[in-house]
Amino acid sequence: MQIIQAIVNLGAAVMMPIIFFVVGVVFRLSIGKSFKAGMLVGIGFTGVSMVINLLLTNLGPASKAMVARMGLHLTVVDTGWPTASTIGWGTPIMPIIVIGFLVINAVMLVLNLTKTVDIDIFNYWIFLLLAAVVYAASHSFWVAALTTWIIFALTLIVADLTAPWIERQYKSLNLKGISFPHLTCLAWVPFGIATNWVIERIPGLKKIDMQPEKIQKRFGVFGEPLTLGFILGIAIALMAGYDISKTLTLAINVAAAMVLLPKMIDILVEGLTMVRDHVEKQLKKWFPKRSFYIGMDTALLIGEPSVLATGLILIPIAIILAFILPGNKMLPFVDLASLMFLLALVTPFVKRNMFRMVIAGTLILICILYVGTSIAPEYTQSAISSKIPMGKGITSMSNIVGSATTWIGWVCVKIGSLF
């Protein structure tokens, strides 16, 4: 377990190349090609991380400025997914839970209950966070462990079911043989399905088509991702009360992210494809009647223009919702800059239509704010148990982009509180 923790501490950019190199060698890809594939994955992850950090570094202050201008004084503070991941990996029950994940995935593969080989160990924090909060609610290791293991197994199955949809809608990313077993993102797929179903039955609304390609075709250069990013950056800066210098800087940085993210992801996918194709070939020899998916990080998907652009649009919407929703006590804060992750797996089910994505995203945010308010005591207790220091003036915390504040997380916490 110390070995796993040590690898996780290296971060995805170092951990994933090691995993892909080992997987390549195990499946008889030459050492040279395995090394190249691992390095390309690592370089791609590094590039993606650099661009995301560029985006978060610039959007973070703008989001805080918008919150300040709105005069929001809510008692449950969104401390962000970095804190949430620390809670997950820092929970006292982490070692046994992680061993359970590895065993469950292996057993389900052997029994043909899943096609997904979840190698994205870094993002086990998503499930570990849920375990930590359920443990805080139930004070029972077995309730927390069994709940989380069941959710993990169901997530693998749902990842199998959603993979074909994701591959079809994200054609440019070449996602054949890839699935995304991420509870935080998969939990919101029903919201996308429901939104799409309702809009398809409303005569006027169903004709609104805001796919990135349609926008670009209609508006030319003004519909390209770089222009869209520039315009959205200006809009966010104006709402934050920025001066001209800061406004232009934010606009350029957002536009840069819109252009650079897909290019960085292309590098990552190139390395991934080298290993995936060889693994697929070997598995067909060993298991001719079966197919498999490699479970990966949803960071692969946020370079999609519709995902990134809609995530930016949701920032001011989240702040307004926090202000107007009756009974809400949650203050959107650190995770405001990461809202695009909530849409990564919703997008295929609304046909990459940004109009429908905004509606689904708004419904998702309403649910998150109420769930975050409801489970704040358990979430805060889990942070204390993981030795997370409470920031100055913070007495209660939660987060937006995390498993505990999904509707699934709320159900698990409330069931856990019964014990």
Automatic annotation (TrEMBL):
Q: What is the lineage of its organism?
A: Bacteria, Bacillati, Bacillota, Bacilli, Lactobacillales
* TM region positions: 6-27, 39-56, 93-113, 125-158, 178-199, 219-242, 248-272, 292-325, 331-350, 357-376, 396-413
Family annotation (PROSITE patterns): PTS_EIIC_TYPE_2 (PS51104)
Q: Give UniProt keywords alphabetically.
A: Cell membrane, Membrane, Phosphotransferase system, Sugar transport, Transmembrane, Transmembrane helix, Transport
Give the way it sits in the membrane: Multi-pass membrane protein
Name under which the protein is recorded: PTS system Galactitol-specific IIC component
Q: Which GO terms describe its biological process?
A: phosphoenolpyruvate-dependent sugar phosphotransferase system
Q: GO CC annotation: what is one?
A: plasma membrane
Compartments, record wording = Cell membrane
Pfam families the record matches: EIIC-GAT
- This chain's source organism reads Lacticaseibacillus rhamnosus (strain LMS2-1)
> What is the superkingdom listed in this entry's lineage?
Bacteria
**Primary localization class, coarse:** membrane
Q: Where in the numbering of this chain does the PTS EIIC type-2 domain appear?
A: 4-419
Asked if Cell membrane is a keyword of the record, the answer is yes
